[in-house]
Amino acid sequence: MLAQHLDGWDADTIPESAPLHGNVTFTPQLADGDAVTLYDDGKPVTIVPAPIKARISDGQIFHRGVDYIELLAGGDRMNPATLVWKAAFTNLQASGVPVKLRPVIFEAVPDGTVDLTVVAPAPGTAGQGIVKGRDGDTIDSLAVEGADLVLRVRDGDGVLRSEQIAIGEVAKAVANDAVTRAETARQGAELAKSDAVTNKNAAVDAALTAGNHATAASNSAGTSTTQANRSKTEADRAATSAQQAADVAAAGMPDATTSAKGKVKLAGDLGGTADAPTVPKLSSKADLVGGQVPTSQIPAVALVKPNSVADRAGMLALDAQEGDVAVIAAGADKGTYMLGNGAPTDFASWVKLVSPDAQVQSVNGQSGTVNLDAADVGAAPASHTHTVAQVTGLQAALNDKANTTTVNSRPALFSGAGAPPAAISGAVVGDWWLNTTTMELSKITGV
User: Fold this and answer.
1) Is residue 18 located within the same domain as residue 105?
2) Model confidence over 179-203: pLDDT tens digits?
3) What is the pTM of this model?
4) How far is CA 342 from CA 141, 168, 299, 321, 351, in A?
C-alpha cells in the first residue's frame, strides 16, 4: 500500500510514492451474540470470533512476525459455510503525512488468499461491497537446502509444486537494489548541493539590490549547503554498506564461529528461528548447583551402594547421603539400615530395614542350615523290608490265591483261537486245548 505526495529532490517531476504505516483491525461480520460452529471429526465445537489487530509497516500487513494474517474462514465443516470480515484502517500515514482509507468488507476464502491491495475501495464506488478473493497459492513447507530456498506450494486446485530460489541471488538482488537506491540518493544530494550553490549565488546577486536582505539570504544558502553535504555523506555511507552487503551475498553467507556471526543450521538439539535460536531439550535437563544435582531434582531415595560396617560407631562415621545403606554384620545393632532425612552422624536418622516374620522357625529342633536324614524324622531308610503283618491286607490277598501244587496239577487247560498249534509251551500229554473260536475242546496227545 502506497501514498503519493509532492515531488521531491530527484531529477524528475513525478510525484513521490511512500509506503503506508498504521494499523488495521479485522472484525467478523456477525450479529451480536452470534457464534460459528466447527464440526471436528463429527463433533460440533462453538467458536466466537474476536477482532484481530495487525500493524501496517512499509505498506505490508504484519502479524506475529509474518507479512500476512490468518483468519477463520467458512467451508464444508463450518456453520455458517461463509464468513465475512471487515478490515478497518487507523492511524495511517505516509512519510509523516496522515492519510485515510475506507474499510473493506470481504469473504474469507477457505485455504485461499485475499489481497487487500486488489479489493481496496476505488473512488466513486457506492457503499462498501463484499469482495471475495480468488483461491490462491499456499506454502505447504519451506526449507533451506544448501544455498537454495525450496518451497512446496499448493495451488487453488490442491496441486503441489516445488519452487527453488537461490538464496545468494535473492540477497544479491536486494543488495543491488540497495546500491541503486543509494546511488539515487547520492545523485539527489549532488543535485541539492548544486541547487544550494545556485541559491547562494542568487542570494549574493539579490544582496546587491536588496540591501539588508543579503545577510539573511546568505545564511539560508549556507544552511542549504550544510544540509546537502550531510545528505551526500549519508548517501555515501549507504552506498558503502550496500556494496558490502552485495559482496557478502556474492560470496555466500559464511559459517558462524565463536568470534564472528554467520549462518548456523537449526538441527539436532537446536530449534527456534535464526533471530531467536533455542535449545528445546535444555528445559528437561537437571540443574547443577555447585557442580551437583540438587536433592529437589532427584528421587527422594537414591541408593548409591551398600556399606558394610562392624558396629554402630562405624555406621555413624560414614560419609553418607539420604538413601545410602549400611549393614552391621554383628553385635547388638546387627541389621540393615537406610539413611533417612537427617544427619548421618545421628543414629536416629538411620531407619532399620526389618525382614518379615518367618513362618518356619525350626525343623526337627534344628535352625539355620538344616540337613535331615530318615532317622531324624522317624522314617524308614531308602532300602528296607517289611513283614507280611506290617502290610495291611497283604495276608488276605494271599489267601485268595491258588497254591503252587494246585496250579501245577494235571491235566491243564490251554486255550487259543483255532486248532491246537504244533507246539504248546508248558503242555504235556493228557492236557486239553480249548478252541475259543468254535469252543471245541481237544485232548493233547503229543507234544
Assistant:
1) yes
2) 777 787 788 778 777 777 777 777 6
3) 0.30
4) 58, 65, 16, 9, 11
